[in-house]
Amino acid sequence: MRQLGGMTTLPSAFTDWFASRGWQVHPHQKEMLTRAGEPALMLIAPTGGGKTLAGFLPTLAELAEAPREGLHTLYISPLKALASDIRRNLLVPISEMNLPIRVEDRTGDTSATRKKRQRVDPPHILLTTPESLALLTSYEDAPRMFAGLSRVIIDEIHALAESKRGDQLMLGLSRLEAMAPGLRRVGLSATVEDPPALAALMAHGGAPCPVLLADPGPDPDIAMLRTEAPPPWSGGGGRYAIGEILEEVKRHRTTLIFHNTRAQAEIFFHHLWLANTEDLPIGIHHGSLSREQRDAVEKAMTEGQLRAVVCTGSLDLGIDWGDVDLVIQVGAPKNVKRLIQRIGRANHRYNAPSKALLVPANRFEVVECVAALEAAKAHDLDGDPRGPGPLDVLCQHILIRACAGPFDERELFQEVCSVGAYAGLSRAAFDDCLDFCATGGYALRAYDRWQRLIKRPDGLWQLRDPRAAQRIRMNIGTIQDTDTLKVRLRGAGKPLGEVEESFAATLSAGDTFLIGGQIVRYEGLKEMTVEVSRSAAKKPRVAVFQGTKFSTSTQLSSRILGMFGQETWPALPDHTAAWLSLQREVSHLPSRDRVLVESFPHDGLAHTCFYGFAGRNAHQTLGLLLTRRMETAGLNPLGFVATDYATLIWGLDEVQDPAPLLQDKGLREGLDDWLKGNAVMKRTFRGSATIAGLIERNLPQARKSGRQATFSSDILYDTLRKYDPDHLLMRITETEAMRGLVDFGRIEEFLARTEGRIDHVRLERVSPLAAPMLLEVGKVPIVGEGRERLVAQEAAALMAEAGLDGL
Amino acid sequence: MTAHAFSLCDTALRALPSGALHIPGEEALCVSDLHLGKSDRIARRGGGLLPPYEARETLARLEADILATDARQVICLGDSFDDLAAQDSLGEAERLWLARLRSRLILPAYGTYTGGLSSTDPIFAELLKRPAIAVLTGTRAIPTPL
Fold first, then answer.
1. Which residue among A209, A290, A529, A656 is least enclosed by CB atoms within 10 Å?
2. Of the candidates A421, A479, A462, the residue with the CA atom closest to the CA atom of residue A172
3. What is the ipTM of this complex?
4. B95: contact with A, CB 8 A cutoff
5. Chain A residues within 8 A (CB-CB) of chain B?
């Protein structure tokens, strides 16, 4: 039964309660009440705008007016912590107005007894996460629990939509719709670039999902932090600005200091602490810290005991932190949308501008920060269009559906197609996934007797062995660990350090890279450890890049290229404007529709720099492809470094003509060769195979450790590659890798945008724009002061060579 | 083949990169824990349906080692099959392949908590060349015809 017509007015108990607190109902909160009957509705509101209450008001009003039993509203948030936070906040109006409403949360932390009771006697409002919801729908009694469900509220839907968790959630909604037809969907989102696209993901069966835009409030007050010393030529971390940042912390009540990586946050925190002579209470918060450490910081923060928190994306989502009045972003924001969302964390009071300062970590980031500031002022947000719904998540969904009892494949197919991201799913693709779940989907041999799902004589599918349900339930979820890997000399004990798994995944045997101040040769990935041997090479082939796994967005890169086209740069600090002028004088500045390639000798080697502005992942891939092509062409490349803007390659012989190297077809062929044996694929495969239910992370009784999982998934990949290269999971893996770590799409975008218009500039010495990249090559964790001085000397000499010593 | 030659108790041995042990003086090849039929056992117990190609991959590697070393006998230590039911999982091609491989000696697991083998299992008829014997273990080793 469809519930029609929301309330146009708030029950008097509510208006009294608002008045007693001296609060006013925001216009968008009223509007949410008025339109409570809409089958789907998305609210976009700034942080602090009472967004969550706006989502809950219709539920509270409906239950106050017409008390009833059973589950009325399901609230889903990406964070467990958010669920319990919201529960506390909701209990205030409920107890003060004495409403007959029971609110409970249900996450991985909820006790088994309580969970069991919730299924028998659900509360009116249940607060949960996408994974816990998926688990709930897998029980045979799910239809009974959800039968009376009237509303679903999805909080922070913009964050969920960026990952497979969002896809899983939307598939879960289609199950809920089947059990409670006509349920109303409400999405709550921060500012996004394309609200209708986000809304379309949430709507049921292509039905419209109107977007309600709350007053965004005043524009944020964003600026670049002025520092006495100019930013360094390369590197990250923002240590040069610690003095000024500390001054800002003193000047504000509570400051959040965002970094792009955990490592940078750690290093920065260490130095900030050394400079913190007044002993201001400052904490650190990031995903690698233990749960207890994070809890302690979160608690101190909510209690207003901290003056600043150094943090990473782990603080991006909306727990109410109280009185944050300044956000500092250290390092280029890479993405304007994320910047805006982060800035929204400052000043949770409605209608007060958020205040933020950007601290570029190096000279190039000055340009990127200014471009981001301009984009933010112009409300020009970025984001890549989402691809179709991923098939590994669909496979898991089919298995979850099977746990709940026998199902009809046609009904399930229709249900899946009612989900925005899967609207275009072909029946053949669905059948592939079903076949994979049932038989493994192997070309050469099937599990005739031990199928996971079997088709009964009545045409319904069911689990062959009902005990399989437990194993499937234990492995629900799509969150992948993105951890660092230890680097160890083969056969030796002590680890040399850690690299991000995403970096390790791009290496092939024989590649050399820098770690802990020494050059090592990549031998292989073994049981979650990167095995290396000592290398006599003078320079590493692949420089470890210090940075984020995020690439600078296409839109922001395009803005930077646009800025390069300006006659003068009044918005840039003098030192940066002079740097660009010098580059224009001795070479060219890159532009949107031409490729700039510079060749110059340096340190006895031929260097060539390709400015693609295609983002870090794409430039890393480009480096691997170009060096292999140069190898074939007899140019003896020795190594390369990739940044968000360019790939710099050095070798024994000069590149005379870069055009053939950049031919699309050849690059693609190279990609194929390189890709198949590369660990990028194995890593991507592991993720998809785990989600699709081929590899089980958790087993009943014995828990399989992570290292065993990696070990065996690599063997599975190699086996499939040899015996069944067209297997569904191999196809999924390729699609994912091309979009993700390989990012070939952006190489193609860059080649298409420039259409072979290449400006090859041959120089006597390093160009001003390329000089900082040479410093990236030597990027190492500094050991001791002496080394630091040596590096400083090398940097000074290099800058003088590029004519940059005065800037 | 890049093998590591060493000597143990005065017997010359070669550790092959594949994980097999070559005993040149005996013209023997020794391998351990083939675990044939592992994917089948996992599937049977309701786990993931792993690529069911491990038996042919294992046998292909074993055959390559046999050819490379010209071994006349193969000694399979430990768990040749993942469990007793795993024999049924072998496809026709794998069965024939196994039968083609040479004389072999199959040892039961030695560890205190590890299970033994049933010598009456029909798989042995396929695995072993005639005449074959089973050695019953216990207080004495008693050879019996199989």
1. A290
2. A421
3. 0.72
4. no
5. 436, 439-440, 442, 444-447, 449-452, 463-465, 467-468, 471, 693-696, 699, 716, 719-720, 722-724, 727
Averaged pLDDT in 10-residue chunks for chain A of 807 residues = 49 88 88 94 84 92 93 91 83 92 88 91 95 96 95 93 93 97 94 90 91 87 90 84 95 91 78 89 77 79 88 68 84 87 70 86 92 91 85 97 97 96 96 95 81 94 92 88 70 69 72 69 78 76 52 91 94 93 95 95 92 90 87 86 90 91 83 72 86 83 45 82 93 86 85 90 94 69 47 73 77
- Judge: B53–A719 Cβ closer than 8 Å, yes or no: yes
Phi/psi of residue A298, nearest 5 degrees = -60, -40
Q: What is the DSSP letter of A35?
A: T
For chain A, the straight-line distance linking the first and the last C-alpha, in angstroms and rounded, comes to 71
Count other Cβ atoms within 10 Å, centred on residue A539: 16
> What is the rounded (10 degree) CA torsion for A541, A600, A549, A520?
20
In a 3-state reduction of DSSP, which class is residue A651?
strand
Domains and CATH numbers, chain A: 12-213 (3.40.50.300), 221-377 (3.40.50.300), 564-662+757-801 (no CATH)
Residues 6+ apart with CB under 8 A from A296: none
Distance (Å) from the alpha carbon of A450 to chain B's nearest alpha carbon: 5
What residues are paired with A151 via a beta bridge?
A: A73, A184
Distance, CA of A799 to CA of B7 (rounded, Å): 60
- Alpha-carbon gap: B25 to the closest alpha carbon of chain A (Å): 31
Residue of B35, B53, B61 to mutate when probing chain A, most A C-beta within 10 A: B53
Bridge partners for A204 per DSSP:
A419
Cα separation, A749 vs A619, in Å, equals 12
| Minimum Cα–Cα distance from B39: chain A residue | A447
Instruction: Kindly state whether B4 is in contact with chain A, defined as any CB-CB distance less than 8 angstroms.
Output: no
Query: What is the full DSSP assignment across A98-164?
Result: T-S--EEEESTTS-HHHHHHHHHS--SEEEE-HHHHHHHHTSTTHHHHHTT--EEEETTHHHHTTSH
Chain A contact for B50 (CB, 8 A cutoff) = yes
What's the structural domain count of chain B?
1
Nearest to B48 among A442, A693, A723 (CB): A693
| pTM score | 0.81
Chain B residues in contact with A451 by the CB 8 A cut-off are 43, 49
Cβ contact A452–B51 (<8 Å): no
Residue type at position A139 = Y
Edge to edge, what strands does the sheet with B73-77 contain?
B4-8, B11-15, B21-23, B28-32, B73-77, B103-106
User: DSSP of A401-456, one letter per residue?
Assistant: HHHTS-B-HHHHHHHHHTBGGGTT--HHHHHHHHHHHHH---SS---SSS-SEEE-
A517 three-class SS: coil
Q: Do B52 and A445 touch (CB under 8 A)?
A: yes
Contact B51 A442 (CB under 8 A): yes
CA distance A437 to A694: 9
- Tokens 């529960």 locate to A87
Torsion angle, alpha carbons of A433, A437, A438, A442, to 10: 70
Encoding tokens for residue A794?
């090398």
* The two structure tokens encoding residue A701: 């009784």
Residues of B in contact with A450 (CB under 8 A): 40, 43-44, 49
Identify from A719, A724, A728 which residue to disrupt to test chain B contact, counting B C-beta atoms within 10 A and taking the largest count: A719
The answer to whether residues B92 and B79 touch, using CB atoms and an 8 Å cutoff, is: no
Environment class of A545 (CB within 10 Å of its CB; exposed 0-12, middle 13-18, buried 19+): buried
User: Residue A598 in contact with residue A761, Cβ under 8 Å?
Assistant: yes
Give the tokens for residue A546. 């210090």
